[in-house]
Design brief:
Blueprint lengths: L7 H32 L1 H12 L10 H17 L3 H31 L11 H31 L11 H12 L8 H29 L12 H31 L7 H4 L11 H12 L8 H26 L8
Helix pairs in contact: 1-4, 1-11, 2-3, 2-11, 4-5, 5-6, 5-7, 7-8, 8-10, 8-11
Family: Belongs to the mitochondrial carrier (TC 2.A.29) family.
Protein name: Mitochondrial carrier protein
Subcellular location: Mitochondrion inner membrane
């Protein structure tokens, strides 16, 4: 006897549920990105200023001095300059990144299990690393123009001859005066850097949590759940390793983004000087090391480390907490 067809309303319910689940996951990722980045906005701005300032015109020479100098010369608002643009970029970036990670992880695990002998395979750090790398590339590429203009908005000061008035003005000005390709300056080192950075963040965070739950050192994870403090520590460890490995590429990316900016702030070009031109990523590495030494590839690492530890930790934990509040599966990997 032929089975009865399901009513159209019942058939639509799974699709509606799946759509809502996707929306909730994207919202959770966006909230996590906005909260984590706003919490460390002053350190984010100082990091970029340290990365791009001219070696002959040093104004920022450390975390404490740099923050005090910004406060003295630009006030409280100066500490958060560029954060609106940053959040406008990081919210969709974070939403896409977390969602892409979950989908990539499912796809990679399914493909791996299709291979003979791997039918019962479980998630491994390598599979998580691959999924994290895919998620990072997708999210970075989708929002890169926002990151490019955010760097310029963050660097400009009251002394900048040209003032970008906001995100749209910066995007349209760069597009009009420097061409569409300028919006993707520094994209290659960004993509190369995001592979170990995001990949290691996800892989280490999830692997550390799984290890703590399985081994239960010091009585952790007795109920197959870790405390917020422990998860924050896992996120901090993952973020520290990831950003240290990828940091030189982040410095080169920032410097390449400034090329072509004729009215840059003096802190970038130096008084009466122009920004150094780079023909590509390799040339940027070569000139940076040649003129400023190998240590220049780690300019701003200290404030970035202070920033990354809470930022990555807050992002992961916020994501899981928001998903829990919205009634979505809490664990990032299934």
């Amino acid at each position: 006897m032929a089975s009865e067809a399901k009513p159209a309303g019942e058939a639509a319910k799974p699709r509606t549920h799946e759509f809502l689940s996707i929306c909730k996951s994207l919202v959770a990722g966006g909230v996590a990105g906005g909260v984590s980045r706003s919490a460390v906005a002053p350190l984010e701005r100082l990091k970029i200023l340290l990365q791009v300032q001219n070696s002959q015109n040093i104004k920022y020479n450390g975390t404490s001095q740099g923050l005090k100098y910004i406060w003295k010369t630009e006030g409280f608002r100066g500490l958060f300059k560029g954060n609106g643009t940053n959040c406008a970029r990081i919210v969709p970036n974070s939403a896409v990144k977390f969602f892409s990670y979950e989908q990539a992880l499912k796809g990679i695990l399914w493909f791996y299990q299709q291979q003979p002998g791997n039918e019962e395979a479980q998630l491994t750090p390598i599979l998580r690393l691959g999924a994290g790398a895919c998620a990072g590339i997708i999210a970075m590429s989708a929002t890169y123009p926002m990151d490019m203009v955010r760097g310029r908005l963050t660097v400009q000061t009251e002394a900048s001859p040209r003032q970008y008035r906001g995100i749209y003005h910066a995007l349209s000005t760069v597009f009009r005066e420097e061409g569409p390709r300028a919006l993707y300056k520094g994209w290659l080192p960004s993509v190369i850097g995001v592979i170990p950075y995001v990949g290691l963040n996800f892989a280490l965070y999830e692997s550390l949590k799984d290890w703590l739950i399985r081994s239960k050192p010091f009585g952790m994870g007795q109920d197959s759940e870790l405390s917020v403090t422990t998860r924050l520590a896992c996120g901090a460890a993952a973020g520290t390793v990831g950003q240290t490995v990828a940091y030189p590429l982040d410095v080169i990316r920032r410097r390449m983004q400034m090329v072509g900016w004729k009215d840059a702030a003096p802190v970038v070009a130096g008084e009466g000087k122009s920004i150094m031109e780079y023909s590509g990523m390799v040339d940027a590495f070569r000139k940076t090391v040649h003129h400023e030494g190998f240590g220049a590839l780690y300019k701003g690492l200290v404030p970035n480390s202070v920033k990354v530890v809470p930022s990555i930790a807050i992002a992961f934990v916020s994501y899981e907490m928001v998903k829990d509040i919205l009634g979505v599966e809490v664990r990032i990997s299934h």
